[in-house]
Design a protein that fits this description.
- The chain has 156 residues and is mainly alpha-helical.
- The chain is 42% helix and 10% strand.
- Strands 1-2-3 form a three-stranded parallel sheet, with helices on both faces.
- Strand 1, helix 2 and strand 2 form a beta-alpha-beta unit.
- The longest helix has 13 residues.
């Protein structure tokens, strides 16, 4: 056996350990910061189970269509090259941060509560407060001020 044929297994980083075999829920995932977070999680944490994305219907496009457009962004080229199946971990859920229950259908809320460790988050919120964020950082002047306030403060 040649030593070059031996596969070296790198230890997991603390971030990879944290997300290993877990599901994640992200709001604002189709925005600038949200896209970067989604790409980084897919690329760096391949053992993540699923990433649930709260996506609004916008400009007549449904969440699934908006996700497909997002994945065409060149920033996802590295992820697709590494493993094309990684993007199958993305699960778009139609909703809106400004609506009660995030505008999620009852079935989608059930999926989240069955798969996202909300109890862990609540127990550790004081410790992990720096890791919790809403990717929707609306600052456009054309956006109604009330909507901006709701998305950026109430939805988080």
């Amino acid at each position: 056996m040649d030593l070059n044929d031996i596969e070296v297994i790198e230890p997991l980083t603390p971030v990879q350990e944290f997300y290993c075999n877990t599901n994640v829920f992200i709001t604002g995932a189709t925005g600038f910061l949200g896209r970067m977070l989604v790409e980084k999680l897919l690329r760096s944490c391949p053992d993540i189970v699923n990433i649930y994305l709260l996506v609004r219907k916008k400009c007549g496009r449904h969440p699934k269509d908006r996700l497909e457009v997002m994945l065409e962004d060149p920033m996802f080229a590295c992820v697709k090259q590494k493993d094309a199946n990684l993007t199958k971990k993305l699960v778009p859920l139609r909703g809106d941060c400004t609506l009660p229950y995030l505008g999620l259908k009852k079935e989608d809320r059930k999926i989240l509560f069955e798969n996202i460790p909300f109890q862990n988050l609540i127990n550790e919120v004081s410790f992990f407060v720096g890791l919790i964020f809403n990717g929707d950082g609306s600052v456009l002047s054309s956006t109604i001020a009330t909507t901006v306030w709701l998305c950026n403060s109430q939805a988080t």
